[in-house]
Amino acid sequence: MGSRRPRAARPAAVSAIGSSEPAAQPDAAGPGSSPEKGSRPGGDVLVKIRGLSFRRGSQVVLHRVDMDIRRGDVTAVMGPSGTGKTTLLKLITGQLRPDAGTIEVDGQSVHTLGKTALFRLRRRMGMLFQSGALLTDLNVFENVAYPLREHTDLGPSMLRKLVLLKLEAVGLRGARDLMPSELSGGMARRVALARAIALDPDMILYDEPFTGQDPISKGMLVTLIRQLNDAAGLTSILVSHDVDETASIADHIYVISHGEVIAQGTPREIAADRSAWVRQFMDGLPDGPVHFHYTAPPLADDLLQRGVA
Ligand SMILES: Nc1ncnc2c1ncn2[C@@H]1O[C@H](COP(=O)(O)OP(=O)(O)OP(=O)(O)O)[C@@H](O)[C@H]1O
Known about the structure:
Elements: E1 45-56, E2 59-70, E3 74-78, H1 85-92, E4 100-105, E5 108-109, H2 115-123, E6 125-128, H3 140-151, H4 156-169, H5 185-196, E7 203-207, H6 215-231, E8 235-239, H7 243-249, E9 252-257, E10 260-265, H8 267-271, H9 276-282, H10 299-304
Parallel strand pairs: 3-8, 3-9, 6-7, 7-8
Antiparallel strand pairs: 1-2, 1-4, 4-5, 9-10
The structure holds adenosine-5'-triphosphate (ATP).
Adenosine-5'-triphosphate is lined by residues 56, 61, 81-87.
């Protein structure tokens, strides 16, 4: 494995990209010197997946997947469309149950937890899903305040401070009074990110965060994901098709195809992987092991059949 970035201690607040306020300082004693080290459930691995299989009807979506998501890392999960990436995130968060295998988060076996314990664990996971729209009749401030109002008893003054800090972290403190309809797509995604980190999660899961973004917004989001991860001491799982952007911030990449892990390693290791599956996806080749054509009978047979749809 390649060299890793030093990990930051978890600060009380996160400063924004380009902010004049200082970013959180890394633990002066260094990441290896924490007194808790070694006593953490699961050790260095926050999410441990073993032999995970999941079907939808007769379709095998994931097949015997093993993964280790290391604490403090940005771990990317990449692969062609329909290959089970979103399903994997839903399994990690306990929204779906596996047919076989186990998922441990911080030493807790997700699918054996009772309702209350699962709810508590989920609160430690921020999620930025593609469909995670903002509440359209609430302004930016209220959208970020929403999870805090729902899940905490914070007084108005503390709540206001926290919301402003989260908005500052995504560079949108000045946009607090805007309504979602007044935001660009990139701003809306950043507000959703501020909302996702409102409850100070340990981990954040991103499902295609760059989809539909222009290059500038995409660049901002890429930087933000890495900076938030490091400054807030998060662990990030990033599902994305955007090869270059993702490779630029990931510590580790899993490439999955047809529900199986076909490669894993640092971005450098994946870039050097010569397998046809990996190259087709990483280089965006239109045909290869993943066929352009959905399985069908020979074209001539189809065309010669008269009067059949
Ligand atoms: N609710 C559902 N009911 C039935 N099948 C589903 C459902 N959700 C997903 N699938 C199927 O499961 C497979 C994996 O879907 P999934 O969304 O996990 O893929 P993905 O890799 O995230 O795709 P994309 O990159 O296009 O978002 C697909 O074949 C999809 O059609």
